[in-house]
From TrEMBL, chain A:
Residues 3-84, 127-221 form the Cysteine-rich domain. Coiled coil: none annotated. GO terms for cellular component: cytosol. It comes from the Bacteria. This is (Fe-S)-binding protein. One of its GO terms (molecular function) is oxidoreductase activity. The lineage of its organism: Bacteria, Pseudomonadati, Bacteroidota, Flavobacteriia, Flavobacteriales. Pfam families: CCG (PF02754). It comes from Flavobacterium hydrocarbonoxydans.
Automatic annotation (TrEMBL), chain B:
The keyword Iron applies. Residues 293-323 form the 4Fe-4S ferredoxin-type domain. This is Iron-sulfur cluster-binding protein. GO terms for molecular function: 4 iron, 4 sulfur cluster binding. Keywords: 4Fe-4S, Electron transport, Iron, Iron-sulfur, Metal-binding, Repeat, Transport. SUPFAM superfamilies: alpha-helical ferredoxin, NagB/RpiA/CoA transferase-like. GO terms for biological process: lactate metabolic process. PANTHER family: LACTATE UTILIZATION PROTEIN B. Gene3D superfamilies: Alpha-helical ferredoxin (1.10.1060.10), NagB/RpiA/CoA transferase-like (3.40.50.10420). The keyword Electron transport applies.
């Protein structure tokens, strides 16, 4: 199975280890992974700031890099959601359509397409799960506390396959961390307060790591943790699923 | 003073213990809502029905409003139409004047808040006593409500005690809720008895019967309407529902969403005036038909003002209602207010992380967070955005459209972050104010990938 790997711009630049873990994990699970070299950004930073009119270049570039693959996988629910909702090409609408249908966030690809039921991974630490909103509420990766629907979680399902891991949730299981794209600077005070509150709840569970499906949430939480000199570290879910201790 | 959401919430958060208390108090309400709704197997079905009834009504508004007016008139209710807040206030004033009335009580009505009726009447020398306990408290303090269901939720017992000491002569420092409520009760009782005219809101107006329903927990709408010679009910035109049987959906979802109660303590049905009473109904547009004409935002008019979206909103809970500088705060306010004044309220759709929790709790299934996103696009299109932001976005767009430039900027950026980290540690970098910068790696993922292929 050939899989095209989309590594969002900030992961490419700031968290290459997340990209590496994703690629290695997919290869371990038998996928042929291709990384189109001309890729940049999904366009979300502009669109969420109200400038969707400025995303044509991103759309064009994305389509040029990712047309024709059966599967496109990215380790970010947020970027995947943005593309699924907003990727467009007025000249070739079918191309954009085809890409949207081939596009998967990493954990849903593992549970729904490859149907992983065992993992050769070990991570003997206490890990707090953060539900990233766009993956959870936007892509339906996990049931939501607001809704009266059966409970499930694709990320948790995978993490439970990891040896030695001890999982926990914060008291408010799916409250937003406060990153929110440019919200994190334009609404700095609320953003940081939201992050601090998430961390306080995770701390109550005496954990070693906070994990999530989006490095953007983790970057924000990591920034706050490091400022207070906390021993808690952040780690992307792909790194745990790919780990061997 | 900067009166935009970001600055106002920064001020609110400066008192962190109080922010925590505010957050936890409202989260408690959200949890009560969860318990009340998760106990109902048909909850998601009720939401779907509520949404469909409202959608249908909004698409046939003209017919239902006409039907409602006919039936209400036949019942003996006097129906008035107001195009905007000004006209609404004038109508209410003219009824007061015609009946030569001085003493007025008013139960909670977000519409009259939206129209600033109290201020208008005050200018005419008339005093209106708000009879909802929370509203009376903020009225004493000359503050606007901070929440549409719990108007004084930003205040602690101590604040209420101080306010009552000043206005009702209660014992200084006595914070006992029972003592304070009793004082308010005695005070309001006398106002009810003296009042000649009662103003109420409307939760649901029923086209087929010409009647309307007012929901309260304190019974204050009834106390007012049952004693006064004249009753004026004020409603936005979106309060209409086709049939009485639809109340079996709406009365079940309203209180569960608002406070986690199965139903409001009082759900009072008004159909016609008493023999010695005059009953008026003012139906208000005030921008609603403009919103109805905006395809992307039309369904915001489904709102039944339960405030579930406030209580669940992680931003609202940590920034307080007043940070939204409008009558209706919270997520729903942020999609209604740009319609009323796009320029003044251009900051509100950005006061959200787009986490989507609001849309999930909304009992009438308004896609609130998607409308927040769409308002951002409108606001930028209309030019209500700073030129700095515009320039930055243009630069970003150019960079991401050119892969080679993106990579070049990435290399320089990471090199700068590694070698001159102090450059970014400035007070102008809002990220850095309370957060460390991420560490920049030497190689990007792409660099690693190319090496790895070799
Ligand atoms: S938008 Fe929905 S959740 Fe918010 S107040 Fe209106 S009905 Fe309630």
């Amino acid at each position: 199975m050939t899989v095209a790997l989309f590594i969002p711009c900030y992961i490419d630049q700031l968290y290459p280890k997340v990209g590496i873990a994703t690629l290695e994990l997919l290869e371990k699970l038998g996928c042929d992974v291709v990384f189109p070299l001309g890729q940049t950004c999904c366009g979300q930073p502009m669109a969420n700031s109200g400038f969707s009119g400025l995303t044509n270049g991103c759309n064009k570039n994305f389509i040029a890099n990712f047309s024709g693959f059966d599967y496109i996988v990215a380790p970010s629910g947020s970027c995947v959601l943005h593309l699924k909702e907003h990727l467009q090409d007025d000249k070739n609408p079918e191309k954009a359509h085809q890409i949207k249908n081939s596009l998967f966030e990493l954990t849903e690809f593992l549970t729904d397409i490859i149907k992983v039921d065992t993992l050769d991974a070990r991570f003997p630490f206490k890990v707090g799960i953060h539900n990233s909103c766009h993956g959870q509420r936007g892509l339906n990766l996990a049931s939501m506390t607001e809704k009266n629907t059966p409970s499930f979680s694709k990320p948790e399902q995978l993490l439970k396959m990891v040896g030695g891991i001890e999982l926990s949730y914060p008291k408010r299981k799916d409250e937003c961390c406060g990153f929110g794209g440019t919200f994190c600077v334009f609404e700095e005070a609320v953003s940081v307060k939201m992050g601090k509150d998430r961390i306080t709840e995770h701390e109550a569970n005496d954990i070693d790591y906070i994990t999530a499906g989006d490095s953007s949430c983790l970057m924000h939480l990591e920034g706050i943790l490091n400022r207070k000199g906390s021993p808690i570290k952040t780690i992307h879910i792909a790194e745990i699923l790919n780990s061997s201790f | 003073m900067n009166s935009k959401h970001a600055a106002l919430s920064e001020k609110f958060i400066a008192d962190e213990p109080r922010t925590n208390w505010h957050d936890e108090t409202l989260w408690f309400v959200r949890e009560k809502r969860d318990k009340a709704t998760h106990g109902l197997p048909e909850w998601e079905q009720l939401r779907e029905w509520a949404s469909q009834i409202k959608n249908h009504t909004l698409s046939n508004l003209n017919a239902y409003l006409t039907e409602f007016e006919e039936k209400a008139k036949a019942n003996g209710i006097k129906v008035h139409w107001a195009a905007d807040a000004q006209e609404h206030n004038e109508i209410v004033h003219s009824i007061i004047k015609k009946n030569n009335i001085q003493k007025i009580v008013k139960s909670k009505s977000m519409l009259t808040e939206e129209c600033h009726l109290n201020d208008y009447l005050q200018e005419k020398g008339l005093e209106v006593v708000d009879t909802d306990l929370g509203e009376r408290i903020v009225q004493f303090r000359k503050e606007p409500p901070s929440h549409i269901v719990l108007p004084a939720i930003h205040l602690k017992k101590q604040d209420v005690s101080d306010t009552f000491h000043e206005h009702l002569n209660t014992e200084k420092g006595n914070n006992d809720p029972q003592y304070l409520t009793e004082a308010a009760r005695q005070h309001l009782r006398s106002k009810f008895i003296e009042a000649d005219l009662a103003i109420t809101g409307v939760n649901f107006a029923i086209a087929e019967t010409g009647g309307f329903v007012v929901c309260t927990n304190e019974g204050n709408a009834d106390m007012g309407a049952h004693t006064a010679k004249v009753h004026i009910a004020c409603m936005g035109f979106e309060k209409i529902i086709p049939k009485a049987e639809h109340l079996s959906v709406f009365l079940r979802i309203l209180a569960r969403s608002a406070t986690g109660q199965a139903i409001t303590t009082y759900s009072s049905h008004f159909h016609k005036p008493r023999p010695d009473q005059e009953m008026h109904l003012v139906i208000v547009d005030n921008g609603r038909s403009r919103q109805l004409g905006r395809a992307d935002f039309k369904n915001s008019l489904k709102c039944i003002r339960c405030a579930a979206c406030f209580n669940t909103c992680p931003v609202y809970r940590r920034s307080g209602g007043h940070s939204y500088h409008t009558t209706t705060a919270g997520p729903i306010g942020s999609i209604l207010n740009p319609n009323l004044d796009m320029k003044t309220n251009a900051d509100l759709p950005f006061a959200s992380t787009l986490c989507g929790s609001c849309s999930n709790v909304c009992p009438v299934k308004i896609d609130i967070h998607e409308q927040l996103w769409k308002w951002r696009q409108e606001i930028v299109k209309e030019g209500y955005v700073s030129s700095d932001k515009k320039t930055a976005m243009k630069g970003m767009s150019y960079m991401f459209s050119n892969p080679a430039l993106y990579r070049f900027v990435g290399i320089i950026g990471r090199w700068m972050m590694r070698n001159f980290p102090n450059l970014l540690k400035s007070k102008h970098n809002l990220w850095f104010k309370q957060r460390e910068m991420p560490e920049a790696p030497k190689k990007s993922f792409r660099d690693w990938y190319i090496d790895h292929q070799k």
